[in-house]
TrEMBL record:
Protein's membrane topology: Multi-pass membrane protein
Organism domain of life: Eukaryota
Places the protein is found: Cell membrane; Membrane
Gene Ontology MF terms in the entry: G protein-coupled receptor activity; olfactory receptor activity
Domain G-protein coupled receptors family 1 profile: 80-329
TM region positions: 23-45, 65-90, 102-125, 131-159, 179-203, 236-265, 277-299, 311-331
Protein name per Swiss-Prot or TrEMBL: Olfactory receptor
GO cellular-component term (any): plasma membrane
Family annotation (CDD domains): 7tmA_OR5-like
Keywords assigned by UniProt, alphabetized: Cell membrane, G-protein coupled receptor, Membrane, Olfaction, Receptor, Sensory transduction, Transducer, Transmembrane, Transmembrane helix
Similarity section: Belongs to the G-protein coupled receptor 1 family.
Organism of this sequence: Camelus dromedarius (Dromedary)
Amino acid sequence: MEASVVKAKVTMTRPCTSLFKDLNSLLSCISLLQTCSCLLGIGNASELSEFFLVGLTDDSQLQPILFALFFIIYSFTVVGNLGILVLIVVSSRLHTPMYFFLSKLSFIDFCYSSVTVPKMLIVFFSDCQTISFSGCVVQTSCFVIFVVTEFFLLASMAYDRYVAICNPLLYHIIMSPRLCLQLVAASYAVGLTNAVLLTSTIFHLTFCKSHVITHYFCEIPPLLKLSCSDTQVLQFLLFACGGFNVSVSLTIVLASYTCVFLAIIRIPSAQGKHKSFSTCASHLIAVSLYYGTTVFIYLCPISEYLIGRDRLVSVFYTMIIPMLNPIIYSLSNKDVKEAFGNILKKTS
């Protein structure tokens, strides 16, 4: 048993190529989406060559303030998520399954924020408020991939906490590097499947009402508002995909944490209970924020879509949550703070 544990730890201590694997996976997904788009004929169903993005506001006095605010938020998002990713790669004490999943979460938060925010910042101070039809396809596809992947990655992290607390002696055997990679690959596979299904259906619609998207990126609900085709099938598909993603991933999260809480209650010492709960608290906060906002957008009927309200909610989950996740996972995490301190000592 000890030999298996040592072997698992040694294998897990090879994440130096983790970032490159993530980037290769991202490029592979985009390439596959482009291939699928060509095979499915995306882009031939509409005469539109581009869309016009309204952005968040047309108030010239408010735009500089929002630009400065969102630029700062995005800067924190990039520095925070890439910082955690690099910290996990270079710190040997963080080469465990828990931080392996956290590095993937940081990568996804960085990616889906970068899919939308830079374009929004450009729109504030530029006449370039248009996005090409193919650019809209790629933006929507990438956004769906990362949003859906995060659902199942959060579920994988919940399962990881369940094994760590309920089966601590077998933790490194159950959560082997192979299983960790399989869980991440499965999360990306579900995200890619959703992206292909939804984008291939959406961009086969005829957009004849307008080319103006009342949003700051190509999000699905405002796109459906522009179509003069029958969108009932697509609305059902959107609700079915969203319902599947939320119900399956949330069931895993709730089942895992139900078992975790039952295990924590049986711990005799108050210190042991506090330590066990503190490892789960940050993840529960991240799950609550993410599920609450995304479910609000994608499981509400399109007929109830309100431009101003939904744009504010989109700002929250495309910018605020990716910025908060590094803070949530680092400020309450003793291992991360100690690893960061050790790196500062070495570099100074």
